[in-house]
Amino acid sequence: MKIDIKARGTATRVIPCLDIKGGRVVKGVKFENLVDSGDPCILAARYEAEGADEIALLDISATLEERKTALGAVAAVRAAISIPISVGGGIRSLEDAQRLLEAGADRVSVNSAAVRNPDLVSRLAGRFGVQCVVVAIDARRGGSGWEVVVDAGTTGTGLDVIAWARTCAENGAGEILLTSIDRDGTGLGYDVDLVRAVAEASGIPVIASGGAILPKHFLDGVEAGASAILGAGVFHRGELSILELKEYLSENGVEVRL
């Protein structure tokens, strides 16, 4: 079943994702074989100029040393752009979130720590507001459904993605950043069945992530129920600009901010 995108009444957001390691943007396939993709400040400024609605910064190596790097990257990107920044990676406490917000983040995204400590989502929402809290879910197909995977795609949890998404919404998540590990970096498009199932089960906005490189892939994500669509490598490599994507979406009945 396709979602009626014309009946939504809100603009679909286009979000470039900057995976940060050692102060640089990196990109891989299925979370592996990472290659350098550039300077986060330069890329973020380019994406804002092209019309990005938000920037996602994900610190993919959450050691204490890398945490300092991530704080510096957030502050530097904040100084370079004016659009909202969502930051995730290694957030295990209210204090971690507070430091990132003070460095310039507008929203924080929690993943592994939320699985291990579900109270974290409700405590973050209580302190900073629902609108500030994103739960990132990395999903891998297994059996007849999808399993929640943590630790940058390395640890299975046995948790059903649909049930976990519902729990996150009940605990106060304002949005879900949903990544298909099976599709990440493959160029095969989003796992639209996954997007649709999570959007319907959670009842909160979903950011589709993992595998989109063609304009049609992004449109498919919107039609499956995503409120925002995220891309990385296709934008970093210059194969598709934010403006080109937005024009395509608008021509196909999707409300976007041009």
Count of helical segments?
10
Unreliable residue stretches: none
How big a fraction of the residues is strand?
Answer: 25-35%
Q: Tell me, briefly, the overall form.
A: globular
Identify the CATH homologous superfamily. Aldolase class I
Shape-level CATH architecture: Alpha-Beta Barrel
Following the backbone from N to C, one meets helices and strands in this order, namely EEEHEHEHEHHEEEHEHEHEHH
| Most strands sheet | 8 strands, parallel, barrel
In quaternary terms, these chains amount to single chain
* Broad CATH class: Alpha Beta
First-residue to last-residue Cα separation: 28 Å
Average pLDDT score: 91
Q: What does this protein look like?
A:
The chain is of the alpha/beta class. The protein has a single domain, classed as Aldolase class I (TIM Barrel). It contains 10 helices and 12 strands. The mean pLDDT is 91.
Topology:
Blueprint: E1 13-21, E2 24-29, E3 32-38, H1 40-50, E4 55-59, H2 64-80, E5 85-88, H3 94-103, E6 107-110, H4 112-116, H5 119-128, E7 133-142, E8 145-150, E9 155-160, H6 161-171, E10 175-180, H7 192-202, E11 206-209, H8 215-223, E12 228-231, H9 233-236, H10 242-251
Parallel strand pairs: 1-4, 1-12, 4-5, 5-6, 6-7, 7-10, 10-11, 11-12
Antiparallel strand pairs: 1-2, 2-3, 7-8, 8-9
Helix pairs in contact: 1-2, 6-7
Q: Top keywords for this entry?
A:
TIM Barrel, alpha/beta, single chain
Briefly say what this structure is.
With 258 residues, the chain is of the alpha/beta class. Helices cover 38% and strands 28% of the residues.
